[in-house]
Amino acid sequence: MAGAHHVLLVPGFFGFANLGEFAYFGHVRDFLVQALPEVGVRGEVDVVPTIPTASLERRAALLAQTAAKLLEAKGGGSLSLIGHSSGGLDARLFASPGAKLPTSADVERIASTLRAIVTVATPHFGTPLAHLFSSLFGQQLLKLLSLSTIHALRAGRLPISVVLRLAGVFRNRKAPANVVDQLWAELLHDFSADRRTGIEKFFTEVGSDRDLVEQLTPAGTATFNASTPNRPEVRYGCVVTRARPPGVRSFLRAGIDPYAHATHSLFVALYRLASRTRANQVHVPRNRIAALSRVYHSRVDARANDGMVPTLSQVWGEGIGAAWADHHDIIGHFDYPTHVPPHFDWVASGTGFDLHRFELIWRDVAAFVGAA
Fold first, then answer.
1. Over the stretch 298-319, which tens digit does the pLDDT of each residue have?
2. How does pLDDT run across 265-303, given as a tens digit for each residue?
């Protein structure tokens, strides 16, 4: 398949690919398998296994190894990468000319086959939430938030009591250690015995490597950007996401379901934390900011975000699309439980993102890759 064009999907901070039933990229992959051949892209669409909180260098090395195995198994071809959240930084590092990664794979040879890199809700200029997660208590919060995400996207919802207490912890960022431990135990109890063992083992393994957290601060990404030039022959594009600022409108859009209102309170806490970016920390040309403001029909500034990553931090390369969507909406985790397969929401952010908007964005992504 020397003429094949393969696409690798690179998970981000919540990329718990090793947990099997947590389909991080499930909806995206299903859609692209159908959409890419329509634009002339014929090859494999695979998901890269990753270690969620490991350093960018280690994650990019895993990407290189996955790409090497794919090209070898398929007899060659070209590659395009689609990275969500910090997965976009993995892709950029892997592609950067002369990148030194901890792997025996021939990174330069593999990277020379790249045609396009698409970053989706990626913190190119960092996120304030990284500061929160860098402390000892923050590491416990990250672990708890991660398990909550797995639970919600697997089962459809969390116990309302857990959501409300979790939102309270993020609002106050001070809680007795036993509260976090209690929430962890309560969530873990809902999994089967085998799955509990797998989850505990997984978090023990990833907990030993948290280097990514510091790298995602605004200061960390400034260092990354200075040392990670684009590969000239690769086409770079981005998908940008923005959630509506918390208020009456977002509250009403969350719906009348008590569970939606409970998760909305968690979204509000995360949104406010992610809105603490300073204007001098994002380096986006004024014309790009003006263009985004026109798309959203309101001013986009450093405070705008998707509940995890500042919107302006996501701008890198050509603009493919901009959506009212929270950080997980954009990869198919919005509220549509009756669809087959079902779409389960992460939090009720009130963005209004739905299946129609999902398909529009990802069709544009497929067209971008096809034109590269």
1. 999 999 999 999 999 999 999 9
2. 889 989 999 999 999 999 999 999 999 999 999 999 999
CA distance 94 to 115: 13
What is the count of structural domains for the chain? Answer: 1
Element (H, E) at 9: strand 5-10
Residue 108 tokens read as 């330069």
pTM over 0.85: yes
Reduce the DSSP state of residue 310 to 3 states and report it: strand
Whether the Cβ atoms of residue 94 and residue 107 lie closer than 8 Å to each other: yes
Tokens of 131: 């500061």
Task: Work out the end-to-end distance of the chain between its first and last CA atoms, rounded to an integer number of angstroms.
Answer: 18
- Domain containing residue 177: 1-372
| H/E element, 114 | strand 114-120
Q: Is 267 helix (H, G, I), strand (E, B) or coil?
A: helix
Residue linked to tokens 């990329």? 15
Query: What's at 40, amino acid-wise?
Result: G
Task: Output the domain CATH number for residue 211.
Answer: 3.40.50.1820
Residue 232: Cβ within 10 Å count: 6
